[in-house]
Write a structure and sequence with these properties.
Length: 284
């Protein structure tokens, strides 16, 4: 669109330009071998929920894995293999009860500790800022910071109004939501870690508007000020430029419109000829 008005008797040309919770890590299986007069390792530390398997070494024969405390472990019978899952923290001694074996050093102990808790990752949207306005159709770059204190982030998925718009598996986590039509959008990011937990970012709200045509009012001179207004979309960015020859243009001011009409003014100089234009700047 092109708009013209007169100043100093000449025509002036104006152009447009999750909430997640912790859970125990997966249970592990540990192996202890045994033979004549030994358990290897004789002392073992495991997490709650872990399983210990006792297995006879080649030529090691049959022995007992008999708990000497509150837990019988594998009981008093001889075995070449047995297993036991420890569900509570504590210290659990055991021995082979065959004659003379414990006295010869065939004893062991399992220490059970509480399993560590997997902490969910954290994630924050860093771009765009909350409340930003875009002109339709909008290609919006969504970026997020995500990290995991006890593991690693495996992927970050991005959503607009609960619909997935893409995912990224590498830092910096970023996608482009393409061709967004006019409307309001609630953006969020969901980060997942290698332990299977996920977290959801705080919501960032943006707006996409159908851009209004930029039109200029007739200029006026008031109290020594040359002034005109131009139409705009609140939240979109505009630039006012002037030129003395319609070839070389200089930027006078850029601003984010606060309403549908914006006022521009400067000191009036009757001896200077200037052309003015207003343009809408590209989306951020």
């Amino acid at each position: 669109m092109t708009t013209c008005f007169r100043r100093n008797g000449r025509i002036v040309f104006v152009a447009l330009m999750v909430l997640a919770t912790g859970e125990c890590l997966r249970a592990a299986t540990n192996t202890v071998t045994f033979g004549f007069f030994f358990f290897n390792p004789s002392n073992l530390t495991v997490n709650t929920g872990d399983t210990v398997v006792w297995q006879s070494a080649p030529g090691g024969g049959s022995h007992t894995v008999t708990g000497t405390g509150t837990d019988p472990i594998c009981g008093s019978g001889t075995v070449v293999s047995c297993s036991h899952t420890f569900s509570t923290p504590g210290t659990f001694p055991y021995e082979c009860i065959l004659a003379g074996h414990a006295a010869a050093g065939m004893t062991g102990m399992v220490k059970v500790v509480s399993a560590p808790t997997n902490i969910p990752p954290s994630v924050t949207i860093t771009n765009p800022a909350n409340g930003v306005v875009f002109a339709a159709p909008a290609n919006v770059t969504i970026q997020a910071n995500a990290f995991d204190t006890d593991g690693n982030v495996t992927n970050v998925q991005f959503f607009a109004n609960s619909s997935s718009v893409g995912a990224d598996t590498t830092v910096p986590y970023s996608i482009v939501a393409s061709n967004l039509a006019a409307g309001s959008y609630s953006l969020k990011a969901v980060a997942a870690d290698n332990g299977g937990l996920s977290s959801t970012s705080a919501v960032v709200n943006i707006s996409v508007v159908a851009p209004a045509a930029v039109t200029l009012s007739s200029p006026v001179v008031s109290n020594g000020q040359f002034q005109f207004t131009y139409s705009a979309n609140a939240g979109l960015r505009y630039v006012v430029e002037n030129s003395s020859n319609l070839v070389n243009w200089s930027s006078l001011t850029t601003n984010t419109a606060s309403g549908s009409t914006v006022l521009y003014g400067e000191v009036f100089d009757v001896n200077v000829l200037r052309f003015y234009r207003v343009g809408r700047l590209p989306n951020p």
